[in-house]
Every structure is written in structure tokens, then in C-alpha cells.
Amino acid sequence: MALSSLQSQRVLSGMRPTGQLHLGHYHGVLKNWAQLQHEYNCFFFVADWHALTTEYENPQVITESVWDMVIDWLAAGIEPSAATLFIQSKVPEHAELHLLLSMVTPLGWLERVPTYKDQQEKLKEKDLATYGFLGYPLLQSADILIYRATKVPVGEDQVPHVEITREIARRFNHLYGREPGFEELVEAAIKKMGKKNAQLYRELRRRFQEQGDVEALEKARAFLENQQNLTLGDRERLFGYLEGIGKAILPEPQALLTPAARMPGLDGQKMSKSYGNTIALREPPEQVEHKLRTMPTDPARVRRSDPGDPDKCPVWQFHLVYSNEEVKEWVQKGCRTAGIGCLDCKQPIVEAIQSELKPIRERAQEYARHPEEVQRIINEGNEVAREVARETMEEVRQAMGLSYR
């Protein structure tokens, strides 16, 4: 079955296995994945090597979390028939590309990644003065480039990671993309498009090369994506020729900005294990209810008759996620006039979260009863991912002169 132009674009995203997944992961990542899997060719991976960059002293946490996390993915609606699910360390080509890219990546590029110093500040209790931690953005780049992903779903704060990947791909292509007879191969590829399409391609390239017309560049890229009679090699040559860099062995990915989904924790801060304010996806219903009924509220409401301010109450943050306009209006009026008590206010949230978690919990229990099925899904995903990674590495080795006979 022919893929649409969107489905032919590959999306790559991963998650570190460092413990049970909670509602923050569900609203921040998994709901988005569940939508993307039907719009793009998606590769979702367990980033166990990435987890080692901060958990190298406690690797058993990673081992214990891998399969639980995959079960949570499946329970949350990630479908193995719609996306490729795999484990990073089961595709050793990630490590090989990381090593080869490290040979050409300037040290300063890694040191200026914003999260490098931010994470060191936030995780002062850990010794992060390691090569692995400095190099984790490059490993992320290898993750993306090994699958030639065209889109990487990220929040605004993670865009620099995609930008450094684009810079690394550009540098690699500049160094190694000039294959023998490149110009002749480009001309042959242009002719394959037909006279009218060839004329349009040349005009768009001229506008970008001579006038710096970025819009013309984007139009040319989209135009090439839709050319059905080009081989992958021809398409990559024409992408490179657009920018004057030779064959695009490693295509530059684009950031796919995802809607900001800030799931509040039980204390009003962002939901995070480090704050101890989470609700796990598979948490028992009675425990979920207890946590929600005992979560803090507006400190000004000492007695039931005291009016409160929803904007100062953590429960209101949950209403912003789960409640419709009618319920939110009821909360605002009832709280400010002491017309409702805090337990009354919490009840719609209890019901909404229990309703959301019930099917997830049931699907998770089913997968947990059949671990061999989960293993089969991942094994198949590992094979698909490795086949794609092998193809990329073959071209990379050849371009770098490492394809010895």
C-alpha cells in the first residue's frame, strides 16, 4: 500500500527507562506518540544507553524498568502494527555512528548545548563529569541520523538538540558527500524527473543559491519528497545539490514542535518522580483516590466556610487539564464563595483520572500476563530498526572510506 507524503516521513523519539511511568509521561509524550503513529512512519525506542549517562552507578534501575515501560507504552495506546518499538542497545549501529560522528564533532558544540550545564546544576548529587554525559547530545544525534528521521517531536526547550543534529549532519555531508562523478549523477537524476519538473527544481535551486531564498529551499525539499521516480540515492544527491554540499548521506531532521502539556503534580509543581508528586499509570484505584483526596489545597481555606482562591490551589491545575468549562466555572464560583468544600472540588478530578487510567490499567495487566508477547513485539521491532540502521551505516562507512573488502 502506498504511503501518503506524511506517512513516508520518518519520526524518531525515545524515552529513558528510569522507573514507572506516570500521568506526566502520558500527557507529555505518550498521547502525542499515539497520534503521530497514524500520521508518520514512527520509530519509538527505549533509550537505555541514554539512561546510563545519569544512572551508571545504579544500572539495575534501568534493567527493572525496560519491560515495565514497554508495557506502559502498549497500554497507553502505542500500537506495534502502527509504529516500530525497539531497544536502543539492541541496535549496536547507534554506538558505531556515535563513535564515527565524535571524530568530526567540535568539542565546543557539545559544551554549548543548554541542557549540559542545566542538568549538572539540577543533578548535583550525581557525578556527571564524564565523557558519556558530555557526549549524550551526540548520541541523540546518532539515534536520529541512523534512521534518517525527517521529524523529531520535541518541546521548545529541546529544539537545540535537533539543531546540533542538523549541524552535525551538515558537517558530515560537507566532509564526505562529494562522491566521484557527483555532478554527472546529479544531472542524470534531474533528467529522470522530466523536463517540467527539472526546470522547476533548477529554478528553486537558483533562487536559493543566488538570493538566499529560504522559502525556495523549503519548496524544493518538499518537491523532492514527492518525486516518485527517484531512487533514495538520487533524492539524497539532489537534496545535497540544493545547498551545494554534495550528497546528503545523513539528511538534516526538522524539529516537530509538540503542544506544551504540563501535567501538574499533586503539590502543584510539574509532575516528577524527583518531587514525589506522581500518579503512576498502573497505580491501584484506591491508592489514586487516596492521593487525590489528601492532596493539598489553598492554605487560606482552613475551615469549610472559608472562601478560597482556585489560582492558589493545586487542585485547580488538575481542573485545567481534565474539566470542561461548566465544571471549571462551578469550581471558580463555589471555591471563592465557600459554596463547595475541597472534597467536593476534588470529586470530578478523582472520577476523570480513574476513568482515564482504568483502560490503561486493564491493558497493562493483560500484557503483564503475557510477557512473551511483549518480548516478541520488541524482538520484531529490533530487527526492523537494525535493518534500517545497517543500511545507513553501510553508506556512512563507504563515504568515510571504511568499507574495506
TrEMBL record:
<keyword id="KW-0067">ATP-binding</keyword>
<dbReference type="InterPro" id="IPR024109">
    <property type="entry name" value="Trp-tRNA-ligase_bac-type"/>
</dbReference>
<dbReference type="InterPro" id="IPR001412">
    <property type="entry name" value="aa-tRNA-synth_I_CS"/>
</dbReference>
<feature type="short sequence motif" description="'HIGH' region">
    <location>
        <begin position="17"/>
        <end position="25"/>
    </location>
</feature>
<feature type="short sequence motif" description="'KMSKS' region">
    <location>
        <begin position="270"/>
        <end position="274"/>
    </location>
</feature>
<dbReference type="Pfam" id="PF00579">
    <property type="entry name" value="tRNA-synt_1b"/>
</dbReference>
<dbReference type="GO" id="GO:0005524">
    <property type="term" value="F:ATP binding"/>
</dbReference>
<dbReference type="InterPro" id="IPR002306">
    <property type="entry name" value="Trp-tRNA-ligase"/>
</dbReference>
<feature type="binding site">
    <location>
        <position position="143"/>
    </location>
    <ligand>
        <name>L-tryptophan</name>
    </ligand>
</feature>
<feature type="binding site">
    <location>
        <begin position="155"/>
        <end position="157"/>
    </location>
    <ligand>
        <name>ATP</name>
    </ligand>
</feature>
<feature type="binding site">
    <location>
        <begin position="24"/>
        <end position="25"/>
    </location>
    <ligand>
        <name>ATP</name>
    </ligand>
</feature>
<feature type="binding site">
    <location>
        <begin position="270"/>
        <end position="274"/>
    </location>
    <ligand>
        <name>ATP</name>
    </ligand>
</feature>
<comment type="similarity">
    <text>Belongs to the class-I aminoacyl-tRNA synthetase family.</text>
</comment>
<dbReference type="InterPro" id="IPR050203">
    <property type="entry name" value="Trp-tRNA_synthetase"/>
</dbReference>
<dbReference type="GO" id="GO:0004830">
    <property type="term" value="F:tryptophan-tRNA ligase activity"/>
</dbReference>
<comment type="subunit">
    <text>Homodimer.</text>
</comment>
<keyword id="KW-0547">Nucleotide-binding</keyword>
<feature type="binding site">
    <location>
        <begin position="16"/>
        <end position="18"/>
    </location>
    <ligand>
        <name>ATP</name>
    </ligand>
</feature>
<keyword id="KW-0648">Protein biosynthesis</keyword>
<keyword id="KW-0436">Ligase</keyword>
<keyword id="KW-0030">Aminoacyl-tRNA synthetase</keyword>
<protein>
    <recommendedName>
        <fullName>Tryptophan--tRNA ligase</fullName>
        <ecNumber>6.1.1.2</ecNumber>
    </recommendedName>
</protein>
<dbReference type="InterPro" id="IPR014729">
    <property type="entry name" value="Rossmann-like_a/b/a_fold"/>
</dbReference>
<keyword id="KW-0963">Cytoplasm</keyword>
<dbReference type="GO" id="GO:0006436">
    <property type="term" value="P:tryptophanyl-tRNA aminoacylation"/>
</dbReference>
<dbReference type="GO" id="GO:0005829">
    <property type="term" value="C:cytosol"/>
</dbReference>
<comment type="function">
    <text>Catalyzes the attachment of tryptophan to tRNA(Trp).</text>
</comment>
<dbReference type="InterPro" id="IPR002305">
    <property type="entry name" value="aa-tRNA-synth_Ic"/>
</dbReference>
